[in-house]
């Protein structure tokens, strides 16, 4: 795996025309972002209404007969990626074509089986998204700081690879080169299985007593946040990446079964250790997650009590800036009906105590550090 670094992180690299096929969340977000850099974004979509909506939101324009894009970005559901990529390669013989599907092997194998010349095709995948889809949810900053996987092979021309890298960098993403096999195994762990886990846990809420649901805190909300994703799309993704997903699920099921067995007889020899070992291994796993800008550096947390009145959160963030403390991350917790919320602010460990002292001096109540 190779992380590609850009020399100039500010000046736009791409110009001219970019054709975006599929005007949903990713396609419209790409259109908004490249247009902000002065690129002529051409939108196409099988759904006329979705296309018009994306155009109305400013993500690009309708196609014309004289269009001659240097790059085509295919943003369609996984089960039609191969069809659309093949059609775009044939229609625009001078363009480099990429797709942003969350699986890479299945479309590649389908194209290879058809005998399509893939010299101008490079599969890619921005690790970005939202729980809700469609152009209405599109954002130009959707890709900022997010990994953008690029799957090249030995036949990929350098200039074609450079175009895809430039696209990712112009959108504020971090290009990472991986093989299709590495990509699908990786997203199976970090994206596809979390979706299944979130959905399976959220399913338990369907028949839960109202009294239990009313106790919901931020822990459950964080865990099931992505459970609102589109089932139709995820059926396609999971079916196409079943092998890597099943491997992770099998290991997860084994761990859950071990914990369940231990809880059935918590006083049996070794039961408490089994539970503790799983929890400790979870701590070790979380510690490996990259932080801000992909860094592995750990941050310290400050939990500030914020009154549920207009402008209070904004005042807190402004005062953090006034005391010279950079907020690395922010997590909010607020229970329905409560008159106060909790803002968990991540900062560098070396400024944590100074931030606490300065905030308290300004009248803020610190719940914990």
TrEMBL record:
<feature type="domain" description="ACT">
    <location>
        <begin position="301"/>
        <end position="369"/>
    </location>
</feature>
<dbReference type="GO" id="GO:0004665">
    <property type="term" value="F:prephenate dehydrogenase (NADP+) activity"/>
</dbReference>
<comment type="similarity">
    <text>Belongs to the prephenate/arogenate dehydrogenase family.</text>
</comment>
<keyword id="KW-0028">Amino-acid biosynthesis</keyword>
<dbReference type="InterPro" id="IPR046826">
    <property type="entry name" value="PDH_N"/>
</dbReference>
<keyword id="KW-0057">Aromatic amino acid biosynthesis</keyword>
<dbReference type="GO" id="GO:0070403">
    <property type="term" value="F:NAD+ binding"/>
</dbReference>
<keyword id="KW-0520">NAD</keyword>
<dbReference type="InterPro" id="IPR008927">
    <property type="entry name" value="6-PGluconate_DH-like_C_sf"/>
</dbReference>
<keyword id="KW-0827">Tyrosine biosynthesis</keyword>
<dbReference type="InterPro" id="IPR036291">
    <property type="entry name" value="NAD(P)-bd_dom_sf"/>
</dbReference>
<dbReference type="InterPro" id="IPR046825">
    <property type="entry name" value="PDH_C"/>
</dbReference>
<dbReference type="InterPro" id="IPR003099">
    <property type="entry name" value="Prephen_DH"/>
</dbReference>
<dbReference type="InterPro" id="IPR050812">
    <property type="entry name" value="Preph/Arog_dehydrog"/>
</dbReference>
<dbReference type="GO" id="GO:0006571">
    <property type="term" value="P:tyrosine biosynthetic process"/>
</dbReference>
<dbReference type="InterPro" id="IPR002912">
    <property type="entry name" value="ACT_dom"/>
</dbReference>
<dbReference type="Pfam" id="PF20463">
    <property type="entry name" value="PDH_C"/>
</dbReference>
<feature type="domain" description="Prephenate/arogenate dehydrogenase">
    <location>
        <begin position="16"/>
        <end position="293"/>
    </location>
</feature>
<keyword id="KW-0560">Oxidoreductase</keyword>
<dbReference type="InterPro" id="IPR045865">
    <property type="entry name" value="ACT-like_dom_sf"/>
</dbReference>
<dbReference type="Pfam" id="PF02153">
    <property type="entry name" value="PDH_N"/>
</dbReference>
<protein>
    <recommendedName>
        <fullName>Prephenate dehydrogenase</fullName>
        <ecNumber>1.3.1.12</ecNumber>
    </recommendedName>
</protein>
<dbReference type="GO" id="GO:0008977">
    <property type="term" value="F:prephenate dehydrogenase (NAD+) activity"/>
</dbReference>
<comment type="pathway">
    <text>Amino-acid biosynthesis; L-tyrosine biosynthesis; (4-hydroxyphenyl)pyruvate from prephenate (NAD(+) route): step 1/1.</text>
</comment>
């Amino acid at each position: 795996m190779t992380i590609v670094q850009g020399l100039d992180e500010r000046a736009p690299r791409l110009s001219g025309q970019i054709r975006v096929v599929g005007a949903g969340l990713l396609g419209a977000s790409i259109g908004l972002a490249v247009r902000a850099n002065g690129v002529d974004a051409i939108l196409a979509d099988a759904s006329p209404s979705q296309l018009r909506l994306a155009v109305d939101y400013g993500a690009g324009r309708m196609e014309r007969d004289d269009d001659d894009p240097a790059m085509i970005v295919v943003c369609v559901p996984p089960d039609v990626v191969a069809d659309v990529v093949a059609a775009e390669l044939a229609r625009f013989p001078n363009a480099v074509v990429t797709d942003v599907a969350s699986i890479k092997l299945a479309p590649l194998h389908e194209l290879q089986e058809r005998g399509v010349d893939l010299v101008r095709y490079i599969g890619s995948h921005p690790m970005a998204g939202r729980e809700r889809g469609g152009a209405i949810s599109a954002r130009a900053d959707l890709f900022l700081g997010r990994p953008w996987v690029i799957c090249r092979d030995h036949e990929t021309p350098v200039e074609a690879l450079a175009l895809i890298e430039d696209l990712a960098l112009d959108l504020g993403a971090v290009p990472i080169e991986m093989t299709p096999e590495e990509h699908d195994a990786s997203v199976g762990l970090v994206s596809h299985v979390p979706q299944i886990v979130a959905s399976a846990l959220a399913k338990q809420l369907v028949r839960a007593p109202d009294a239990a649901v009313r106790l919901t805190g931020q822990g459950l909300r964080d865990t099931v946040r992505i459970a609102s994703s589109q089932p139709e799309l995820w059926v396609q993704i999971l079916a196409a990446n079943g092998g890597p997903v099943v491997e992770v699920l099998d290991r997860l099921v084994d761990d859950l079964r071990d914990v369940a067995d231990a809880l059935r007889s918590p006083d049996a020899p070794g039961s408490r250790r089994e539970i503790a070992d799983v929890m400790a291994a979870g701590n070790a796993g979380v510690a490996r997650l990259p932080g801000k800008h992909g860094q592995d550096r750990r941050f310290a947390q400050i939990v500030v009590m914020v009154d549920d009145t207009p402008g209070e959160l904004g005042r807190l963030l402004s005062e953090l800036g006034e005391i010279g403390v950079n907020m690395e991350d922010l997590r909010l917790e607020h229970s329905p009906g409560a008159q106060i919320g909790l803002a968990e602010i991540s900062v560098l460990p070396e400024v944590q105590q100074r931030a606490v002292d300065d905030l308290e001096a300004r009248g803020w109540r610190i719940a914990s550090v």
